[in-house]
Design a protein that fits this description.
Belongs to the prephenate/arogenate dehydrogenase family. GO terms for molecular function: prephenate dehydrogenase (NAD+) activity. There is one protein chain. By secondary structure, this protein is of the alpha/beta class. Helix 5 links the parallel strand 7 and strand 8. Helix 3 crosses helix 4. The relative contact order is 0.08.
């Protein structure tokens, strides 16, 4: 596969996102130049194959700034000044503040278009980077009044080269959207996980997949999220205020479940959650209905691979899969989601082949 991204690409910042971008582009034989203020971080990214060190004769066509949010505008401005013929983008998770700061500083906005890949991991740094980090993920491009069509097209090419799905959204609309789908969920997950600090040991011993699902992102880097939340505070606060009101209503119902209207309040809260989840796009959008089968496997090497291989041999396409372990037992619990019309036949075939279907 040949790269859509034309010319040399300079990546400033070799953390998780910057190194992942470098790995993905380097795999397509794009000439990637790496820079980082930390010599050791830069050396590690180069050793991993994300690109090479800068040379005096470098002439990047595209610069990607992948530094912490509180330094993004400063670094973008410096790169615009240092490379007067290059298109500059950044991958910070908040867009309006960067654009406003650049405009206030008199930066040449006609060569800047912000972007944001909706991808990440709980771990950070080049050691956590992956060339496929952006595969299938939205990559928001945030053009402004000075942006040219060909600049947006160049960033769309970058996103597609990395396996992402480009989408165009104004900076303000982007920031409002991520406040709901990313930033507020991070705080909710962190606050929920914090309840476990003083929980008795016997309580955490009972933890199942539901707790792991809702607290997974609570393991994220606090320093990074402090910057993100501060930059988008005005948009995150109303989301949390509405959540607080919902919690107050639920709390009132739980304090007296027999009171008139209490059961209705709880039911409405749970039903609203069902409606919200239904809006989250899946593999084929928001309308796909699937059936989930639970298969018990021995917790030993090769069992999961064998299960997936045999499902493939049955010509059944998986829509989703989730794996967890039974605490204290040598059993893996695999939930496989398939189209409803395939579920009955799959269950029969799995049982025939000796699998335990719960």
């Amino acid at each position: 596969m040949s790269a859509r991204t034309l010319g040399q690409v300079r990546v400033v910042g070799t953390g998780l996102l910057g190194t992942s971008i470098g790995l993905g582009l380097s795999a397509l034989d794009v000439d990637v130049v790496l820079h980082d203020v930390s010599p050791s971080t830069l050396a590690l990214a180069v050793d991993y194959g994300a690109g090479r060190r800068a040379r005096p004769d470098d002439e990047p066509a595209l610069l990607v700034v992948a530094v912490p949010p509180d330094r993004t505008a400063e670094v973008v401005a410096a790169e615009l000044a240092a490379s007067p013929s290059s298109l500059v983008t950044d991958v910070a998770s908040v867009k309006a503040g960067v654009l406003d700061a650049l405009r206030a500083g008199g930066a040449p906005l006609e060569r800047y278009v912000g972007s944001h890949p909706m991808a990440g991991r709980e771990r950070s740094g080049p050691i956590a980077a992956r060339a496929d980090l952006f595969l299938g993920r939205p990559w928001v491009i945030a053009p402004h009044v000075a942006s040219a069509t060909e600049q947006v097209a160049a960033l769309e090419a970058l996103a597609r080269d990395l396996g992402a799905v480009p989408t165009t959204l104004a900076a303000d609309r982007h920031d409002a959207a991520v406040a709901v789908v990313s930033h507020a969920p991070q705080l909710v997950s962190s606050l929920l996980a914090a309840r476990l600090v003083d929980a008795p040991e016997h309580a955490t011993d009972l933890a199942g997949q539901g707790l792991r699902d809702t607290t997974r992102i609570a393991a994220s880097d606090p320093a990074l999220w402090l910057q993100i939340l501060s930059a988008n505070a005005a948009r995150v606060a109303p989301v949390l205020a509405a959540l607080r009101d919902d919690l107050d209503a639920v709390l009132g119902a739980l304090q007296d479940p027999a009171a008139p209207g209490a059961q209705r309040a709880l039911a409405d809260a749970l039903a609203a959650g069902n409606s919200g989840v239904a809006r989250i796009p899946g593999k084929h959008g928001v309308d796909l209905r699937t059936t989930t089968l639970t298969v018990l496997i021995d917790d030993r090497p090769g069992q999961l691979a064998r299960l997936l291989t045999e499902i493939g041999e049955m010509a059944v396409n998986l829509e989703d899969m989730r794996l967890e372990h039974s605490p204290g037992a040598p059993i893996g619990i695999v939930e496989v989601s398939v189209l409803p019309e395939a579920a009955a036949g799959l269950e029969t075939d799995l049982v025939r082949r000796g699998w335990r279907v719960a």
